[in-house]
Each structure stands twice: as C-alpha cells, then as structure tokens.
Predict the structure.
Amino acid sequence: MRSVNNKLLQSLSSFMLILFSLSGCLNNTDKGTHDTNNKAKTDSSGYNGVFKSYRDGYLYSEVTLKNGKKNGLSVRYYPGGGINMQLFYKDGIKIDTSKWFYTNGKIYRETPYRQGKIHGIQKKYHKDGSVLAEIPYAFGKRIPGLKEFSQYGNEVTKYPSIVIQKQDLRSSSSSYIVNMRLSNNGKRVKFYRGSYVNGSFNVDKLEYLLTKNGQSSIHFVEKPGYTGATKIHIIAEYISRLGNKKYITVKVTLPSANLKY
C-alpha cells in the first residue's frame, strides 16, 4: 500500500512540475517585448532614446524618440542587415534629406523635406550610382522640370505630346467631342482638365477625365444662351519609360462659347 502511495505522490509531483514549467514558458513569451534591447517592443509612447523593433528575427528599424515622438535619425534595415532607408525628424515631422538604398548598398533616392513636405529636387539613381532622374517639388506638389538620364549619363529629351482629335456633331446631335491620346499611344497615362495651380500639379484642383487604354474624351453639348469658355486646358500625367511622372499640357480651342460640358 505504501508503495502505491509513493508512486501516486511521485506522479502528482511530476504533474505539478510540468504545470509549473508550462506556466513559466507562457509567462516568458512576452518578456522580449520589454527587455533592455526592445527586441519586439511595440509601445513607444513616452519613450526617450533609440527605439528598436525586430521582424522575423532581424533588426527591422531604429527610431530616435523624444517623449515618444520621432526626433532625429530613423533607420530601416533589409533582412540581410543593409540599410533600406534613413529619415530625419523633428517633433515627428520629416526634415532634411531622406535617403533610400538598393540592397547592394548604393543610394536609390534622395528626397528633401521642409516641414514634412517634399520641397526641392528629389534625385533617383541607377544601381551603378549614376543619376536617373531629377524631380522638382514645391511644398509637397510636383512642378514642371523633370529631368531623366540614361545609365550612360545622356539626358532624355524625347517625350510624347498630347494628340487632340475633334468630332463636330452639332449639326446632327448638338454634340461636340474632344478626344485625346498621347502621340506614342502610351497606355500609362491619366488625363486631367485644368491648369497648374501656382505653377504646380495639384490633383485636388483638377478634374480627372476617365482614361482607358491611354485614351480619354470630353463630350460637350451645344446650348443656345449658355456662355462658357472657348479654351480648355488639358494635363496628361504620363509614366515615363524610366518610371517617373512626366506632365504634358495642351490648350484646346473650342468653336463656340455655347458648348456646355
């Protein structure tokens, strides 16, 4: 009988030991979120210093914080350890020049910021380090003046123009249609009605024209007694062969002020 009791006690002790071990494992699963290295910490509120975050076992980012706000250098890394991007902040707002890098360590893009908005010349680079594009911005908005360069340093000078085709159907249906496309029949394009605002491309101030397969159109109806503009402005947002947005404009003259859109 004593032997049986001893066996029961041994079994019960082993069971309790297993429970304590499991409890310890479960309680330790979150310890990494609060260790001194911040290996998986996600709550940065009120934090001061360099806040580190990890993903899939590698250092994903290092962010300099002051009272929980980004202040100073922030760096994001590739899984292999190389720098993906580095940005500078002041009170949570982007400032100075941010940089993005290829996996080979060479710079991919430099973007200047002023008070959180892109302002100045953004530069993109080929993988060999030569300049690919110079893209001008003013207070977060694109402005004309894109420059692109081949890998050999030659500036790209040939871009498509906007081709306008008019259909005058007023004699039969009182309609007048303005069709548009690019001279190279490019498909990566969006057409807008309107003009630059303070010299910049502001999509919020433009009217998007439904564009399908690189083509769009405006349908007018002739309304006696109606007086409208006799000229309209069209802007094409074209994605170039090097992957940058090029803005192309054209002014269209209408045959009558009685055409209503």
